[in-house]
Amino acid sequence: MASTQGLQAYEEEKLLLSLPKERGWAAHHLYLFQDFWCPSNFIEGVNNFQKHFQSKDSDVIVSSFPKSGTTWLKALTFSIVNRKRFSSFDNHPLLTSNSHDLVPYLDFIFHCDNIQNKLSYLSNMTEPRIFGTHIPFPSLSKSIQESNCKIVYICRNPFDTFVSFWIFANKIYPDSLDKLTMEEALEKYCKGIIGFGPTWEHMLGYWKESIATPNKVLFLKYEELKEDINFYVKRVAEFLDCPFTEEEESNGVIESISNLCSFEKMKNLEVNKSGTFDRSFEKKYLFRKGEIGDWVNYFSPAMIEKLSKTMEEKLSGSGLSF
Ligand code: A3P
Fold this sequence. Notes:
Blueprint: H1 2-18, E1 21-23, E2 29-33, E3 36-39, H2 43-52, E4 60-64, H3 70-81, H4 93-96, H5 99-102, H6 106-109, H7 115-123, E5 130-133, H8 142-146, E6 150-155, H9 158-172, H10 182-190, H11 199-212, E7 217-221, H12 222-227, H13 229-239, H14 246-250, H15 253-260, H16 263-267, H17 270-273, H18 301-315
This protein binds adenosine-3'-5'-diphosphate.
């Protein structure tokens, strides 16, 4: 066993040495791994996930670029898919558990030594299994791409994603930002250098797939969910082949799910106000303002010009806009 682990560590070290490396915004270095900037603490998990994860046709994958609304979409998906099991919204798992605890990250599950234990845990999970991931579409395991599982993806206006990411990184790594200014961080962001970036490549990977295989990938925008959440709760349920019945609709189940997962409700739950994650940051940092357009309070005219130009360049002709 020790020699298997030793070999694994050696191979990982060899892999890391072969990859382009950049200073990230925070505590971890970023490695250019399969065309995306992977934080050093994720490489092992992503590598193992790609090698070992076996998708089931009934799986649901909640995918996102970090700080785009992952916590929200995990909560919505969990409550939509499990609404028969958990039909009481006064006694719901989301009232006592954070959505990241109910919908684990595939990128993190395999960050471990005992892969066999993980695999047997995964094969015994209640179905449909729901997982989260920040991995770009082309780097998902073949098994996800080839099975009939469904992927729900959320993205957000990069202006707001950048601000949300910047403030989050400052909160969780207050001492290790290496004196990076916001302007310098934006420079890196525009070059694509951010965990799981480039942001545009991430979005475009899922965007193109949602057009090519609309039954496989549902592409959502944070802003659209904010504008009409009930519509999108219904849309996600239809996409996941569990549409609401007329009776559910008239009983207000859609509105109950929207309310349960709303920013105000989740932010004020005791379970989300205190305590930390296994990744050791405080859960309260997942809930900040939950607004559209907060970036105007942080961007200088030069920063606006820089990011607007980059987005125009990277997204033009794709049909994707914000
Ligand atoms: P802000 O920093 O702009 O407030 P992620 O979950 O991918 O880490 O994204 C975090 C962003 O989503 C944060 O944005 C956070 O406040 C917001 N958010 C968290 N829960 C939310 C919810 N239930 N509804 C809407 N936005 C939410």
